[in-house]
Amino acid sequence: MRRILSHITFILLLSACGIAQTKVIKPVSKKYPTTTNLGFGAGLSRSVLYLNRNVKEDNDARGYSFSMIYGGSRILRTSIEYTHYRAINIEPTWYNIKASTIEINIHIIARFRKTNAFFYPLFGLSYNRFQGYFTGKNDFLNLTEKHPVNQTINTNWAGLNVGTGYEHYLKPISVFIDYKMRVGFSEKTQLNIMDVCFTFGLRYNLKVPSIYKIFSGTRSRYVLETEKN
Questions:
Q1: pTM for the complete prediction?
Q2: What is each CA distance from 1 to 9, 61, 111, in whole angstroms?
Q3: Pairing of strands 94-108, 110-111
Q4: Cα(206)–Cα(39) distance, rounded to whole angstroms?
Q5: Which of the four pLDDT bands, split at 50, 70 and 90, describes residue 193?
Q6: Backbone angles phi and psi of 211, in degrees to 5
Q7: Which of 145, 134, 130, 180 is nearest to 160 (CA)?
Q8: Residue 136's pLDDT is what?
Q9: Which of 15-19, 30-34, 176-180 has the lowest mean pLDDT?
Q10: CB of 117 within 8 A of CB of 138?
Q11: What integer pLDDT is reported at residue 16 of this predicted model?
Q12: H, E, C per residue of the chain
């Protein structure tokens, strides 16, 4: 009888030890996307170029825009853009104005349910070029104090881009429209809205490795082999 009781006691002790053991919860590993989007776009742009100087109505410059975007698997993506504008005049002060813009922007993606479209606020930096023949006539900004008259003047300025965009996918092509305001310092070192720009275009999209996949190196290969084993 004692032997049976001792066996029962031993079994109960083992059971109690097993129940008393602390349960270890493994941390949930964060999964990153292995692929993302790479898009090449082209479109038409319309801009006032230099708002302080271009005071004439319906005198916007029109040009061609080229862009490359990377990202978008989650909520952020980056774009690099170049825009070249056709020459315009701001008579009688400026003639044969040539302008271009190089910029880099971050898009914050807000997706719509049950549709292949999304909306994105954007912000970034731009480098803007304004070149034109300056006559000095009707110079309400008093630029003759800084620039000689009857000469070609080059003005380069840096801007902060703020705007929004909309993109609709018709895979692998997408249609997009962007609206941007560029803020910078004018001749009198005042912070102003220097440019307002619209761009409409098409983009061709590809699936490429994401930045997480690129920087993971060969580690992901060993993880896959372990999972298979």
A1: 0.77
A2: 12, 104, 74
A3: unpaired
A4: 6
A5: very high
A6: -65, -30
A7: 180
A8: 93
A9: 15-19
A10: no
A11: 47
A12: CHHHHHHHHHHHHHHHHHHHCCCCCCCCCCCCCCEEEEEEEEEEEEECCCCCCCCCCCCCEEEEEEEEEEECCCCEEEEEEEEEEEEEEECCCEEEEEEEEEEEEEEECEECCCCCEEEEEEEEEEEEEEEEEECCCCCCCCHHHCCCCCEEEEEEEEEEEEEEEEEEEECCEEEEEEEEEEEEECCCCCEEEEEEEEEEEEEEEEEEECHHHHHHCCHHHHHHHHHHC
* Spatial separation of the C-alpha atoms in residues 169 and 179, rounded to whole Å: 18
CA distance 149 to 143: 9
Q: Can you read off the two tokens belonging to residue 169?
A: 């996918």
Structure tokens at 224: 């896959």
What is the predicted pLDDT for the residue at 187?
A: 77
Write the CB contacts of 83 (distance below 8 Å, at least 6 apart in sequence): 45, 47, 63, 64, 65, 66, 100, 101, 103, 197, 199
Higher-confidence position of 169 and 220? 169
pLDDT tens per residue across span 87-105: 999 999 999 999 999 999 9
- What's the CA gap between 131 and 94, in Å, rounded? 9
**Which span out of 11-20, 121-130, 141-150 was modeled with the highest average pLDDT?**
121-130
